[in-house]
UniProtKB/TrEMBL annotation:
InterPro entries listed in its UniProt record: Rv2466c-like, Thioredoxin-like_sf
Source organism: Streptomyces marianii
Domain of life: Bacteria
Protein name (record): Disulfide bond formation protein DsbA
Amino acid sequence: MSTAPPRPETTVADIWVDPRCPWAWITSRWMLEVEQVRPLETRFHIMSLSVLNQGREVPEKYRQGMIDGWACVRVCVVAQQRYGNGVLRPLYNAMGRLIHHEKAGLGHDMILAALEEAGLPADLIEAAEDTSWDEPLRAEHHEGMDPVGSEVGTPVIHVPGPDGKPLAFFGPVLTPAPRGEAAGTLWDGVLAVASTDGFFELKRGRDRDPVFD
C-alpha cells in the first residue's frame, strides 16, 4: 500500500506595503499568485511612505501625496489594532483596487468604500486625521523597515531563512505580475538570492510604467 508524499510545510511571508504604492501593489498580486503554486501564506503589514520620507527633500510632484497618504495608513493600523492582523489583507486588497484600478484617489470616499468592501465598520474613518495613531503606525512601519535599512521603500518582505532566522529584503519590483508557475519560479529564485550570505543588491533601471491586470 503506497502512501502519499508528505505535504511541504507552508512558508509564512510577511509583506510591508503602503496602499498608495503601485509597485508594492503589483508585488502583492504576484505574492497572491505564488500562493496558488507554492506552499506560501502571505501576511500583510503596513509601512508608510509618508513616515519614510518625513524630513527628507521630496520632489514637488510627490509632496501632496506624502500629505494625503497619511489617512489610509492610519485607518489600516487602527483596523489592525482593533480587529487583528487578518483584516489587513482584505482592507489592503480593497484599497489597492480602488486606488490603482479605479483611480479613486486617497481621500475619505475611497477609504469608506474600502472599509465597506472589507466588511469593516465605517467609523474607522475617524482615524484618518487622528495623529494619535501615528505612534503605532511608526512602530508597525519600523518593524518591517528597520531590518532592510532606510534607503529602500516598499514592498519589503520577511521570510524564514534556511537556518530559521528571518530574511528581510526590498522588492522584487516588477511589472506585470507573473502568473501561474512563472510566479512560483520567480519566488524560488528570490528565495535563493535572498538566502545567499553576503548578497545585497541586484538592480536595473525601469523601462516601463506599472501594468495592472
